[in-house]
Amino acid sequence: MSDVSIEHEPTPPPRASGTRMKGGCHIHLVEEATGKVVSEVITPDYVYQNERRTREERKY
Amino acid sequence: MAAGSGLTAAVDLTLTRTIVGATSPYTSPSGGAMWCSLYSTQFTAATKAGATEWTTGSDTNYARQALGTGGTNTSGWTINAYASGTGVVITNFATLTQPAPSSSQTLNAVGFCDTVGPTGGNIDLFADLPSPQTVNTGVQVIIAATTGAVFTIY
After folding, report:
1. Domain count, chain A
2. ipTM for the assembly
3. Beta-carbon separation of A29 and B142 below 8 A
């Protein structure tokens, strides 16, 4: 896996009225022949509690 | 244009009609079946529509990937109960693997739609990438189970 640094905004608080949906994807581009991750992309609104990790914390 | 995510503009409208009981409401995916689709352009936060999907003409391996598992694409999402301060979080149940393209493609957004395609249907959810990514031949686009796609309704 790549050593991409990942930081996210916290999950937004619920609003007092109305509703909204946001979110996103954590995408891996993987070489089919080798299984090597050639790129890793996280879309801007993606939030997952266990993904708040730094470069040093990412051990695959 | 800023990257966006969530419901498409069309679904914003039809869901609103559904909630208030107006005509032309939202039509749920048949049997809960949904597919993951890939796009070379963004939907954008402002428009939430109009992204250009990959085509089988440019990538003969392209196919929308079914959510779910066990030979069925129903129940493709894990839906968590509402939690105060968080909302309702949904995550994809199984890993989605797009076959490596037959020719290099540009990835700029991911969608979740109600038809196997490879064209047509309704796009319900989308997530724009922060910048375009080149997907070369021999490279698969993979969205891992549970952590790969996460949307929050709040």
Report:
1. 1
2. 0.92
3. yes
